[in-house]
Amino acid sequence: MRKIEPEILAQKIKEGDRFALSRAITLAESNRLDDLNLAHQVISLLPTSKTSKRIAITGIPGVGKSTFIESLGKYIVQQGEKVAILAIDPSSSLSKGSILGDKTRMEDLSREENAYIRPSASNGSLGGITSRTYEAILLCEAAGFENILIETVGVGQSETLVNEISDLFLFLQLPGSGDDLQGIKRGIMEMADLIFVNKSDSFQEKLVKDAKLDIVRSLQFLPTKASQWKRKSIIGSGLIGKGVPELWELVQDYFTFINENDYYRSNRENQQLKQAERYTIDLINQHYLKALKAHPIELNKHISAFEMAKDWLNNHSVEMTIK
User: Fold this and answer.
1) CB under 8 Å to 141, separation ≥6 — which residues?
2) Mean pLDDT for the chain overall
3) 8 CB burial (10 A radius; 0-12, 13-18, 19+)
4) Where is the signal peptide (predicted)?
């Protein structure tokens, strides 16, 4: 296989080469440390965007995320802007495989010159995203995609990870979902900046109005966000594009607001620090997994598994040098 030159790959990405962009993201998603190092060499040669919009989009299965995202993506392109969709598909816990069908679900958008869709497998990662979504964001921004839409696997309390790598958190809700979702809604609603009640054209008017009222009431009891932004909700339909222009206007208002109060800058700095912490943990894990393979833990029936682990670490704790 021909050696990949980081400088050449970085230059092609800056020129908007889709193949080069996809290749760099594939390197970043690799389980091999050499590939990840190469991906970060490429990233270090690329410009860092200070104006991009990183938008996380989540919702319960069946809420219509893909249809909504295609509608929003097409609207963004119509405004003369570029958009990248990072769509995460759940992986099988048995085969580790993933369908990666988002390009077929967003067929119209995938044909747009100013849109880029990258489906990735979650590979069992918590947080509703793949563990290398952060790198994919940086690469897409360097390729000129100023609007990054991150579609998560689904909702759950572990969705905090996607919140930590995005600027705006958009929660899709269904009319009539009722109190059965209260357990997960509380955590998600606290993170949400905007709530979009989707599929309003498929439900009775009363259910739609009740959903809106339920959200307005719920928002009153939530703590103020660090950005000081007051959460807002809107009713619409991704299928017919209803409410999408109004939603995008709210998105613009949000970014104007967080730029004016300097939250955009401080949040990006915080994202970088949190990512550095995750890299540290990843590198330590990889180091000790190699050590475990070379020196497996020996069974000792007289002590607990926890004590065996402590003994192994005490005997094999070595100074780390990461190249």
Assistant:
1) 48, 49, 52, 148
2) 84
3) exposed
4) none
> Shortest CA distance to 52 belongs to which of 231, 218, 251?
251
Q: What is the DSSP string of 62-121?
A: TS-HHHHHHHHHHHHHHTT--EEEEEEEPPPTTT------HHHHTHHHHT-TTEEEEEEE
What pLDDT is recorded for position 320?
62
Q: 100 Cβ partners below 8 Å, 6+ apart?
A: 89, 119, 120, 121
- Reported as half-sphere exposure (CB side, CA atoms, 13 A), residue 193 has a value of 24
- Mind listing the pLDDT tens digit for each residue in 16-39? 999 999 999 999 988 787 888 899
What's the pTM?
0.85
pLDDT of residue 323: 60
Q: Give the whole-angstrom CA distance, residue 95 versus residue 257.
A: 45
Burial of residue 236 (CB within 10 Å: 0-12, 13-18, 19+) is: buried
CA 133 from chain centre, in angstroms, equals 6
Q: Which residue has the tokens 């939603």?
A: 247
Distance from C-alpha of 129 to C-alpha of 226, rounded to nearest angstrom: 23
Chain length of the chain: 323
Residues 6+ apart with CB under 8 A from 206: none
- The residue type found at 83 is V
Which parts of the chain have pLDDT scores under 70?
1-2, 89-105, 121-131, 153-159, 176-186, 318-323
Report d(CA 87, CA 121) in Å as an integer: 9
Distance CA(13)–CA(18), nearest Å, equals: 7
Tokens of 283: 């590198």
Q: Write the pLDDT tens digit of every residue in 221-265.
A: 888 999 999 999 999 999 999 999 999 999 999 999 999 999 999
Distance CA 105, CA 122 (A): 18
Within the chain, residue ranges assigned H as helices are 6-14, 18-29, 33-44, 65-78, 102-105, 107-110, 133-142, 160-163, 182-191, 205-220, 244-260, 263-294, 305-316
